[in-house]
Design brief:
- By secondary structure, this protein is of the alpha+beta class.
- The chain has one domain.
- The protein has one helix and six strands; from the N terminus they run αββββββ.
- The strands form two sheets. A four-stranded antiparallel sheet has the order 2-1-5-6. It has a two-stranded antiparallel sheet with strand order 3-4.
- A hairpin with a 2-residue loop joins strand 3 and strand 4.
- It is globular and about 30 Å long.
- 27% of the residues are buried.
Length: 85
């Protein structure tokens, strides 16, 4: 868990921790996960964006995932937001 989480902070964290990462995933407003694999590869694609409705602890205008297993996923090459379960 990173204090005052934002999407940019998560991406920066992943860049420092793992140069091979491609996706930064956020959940619950304060959890950041760095992924090398496409999280949609084994799934039917993203869920509705409405599932990700938790503001980031560090920026109330930024969304950092949802509750349960819903995550905001950013592709570091495009910084495109998607949601998956």
């Amino acid at each position: 868990m990173i204090q005052n989480m934002t999407t940019r902070l998560c991406i920066s964290f992943c860049e420092q921790e793992d140069l091979d990462f491609r996706y930064a995933a956020l959940k619950g407003g304060n959890m950041c996960k760095c992924l090398k694999e496409d999280p949609f590869k084994e799934k039917d694609g993203p869920s509705s964006d409405s599932k990700c409705n938790v503001n980031c602890e560090g920026d109330e205008n930024d969304i950092c995932g949802g509750q349960e297993d819903y995550m905001s996923v950013y592709d570091s090459t495009y910084l495109a937001l998607n949601t998956y379960y």
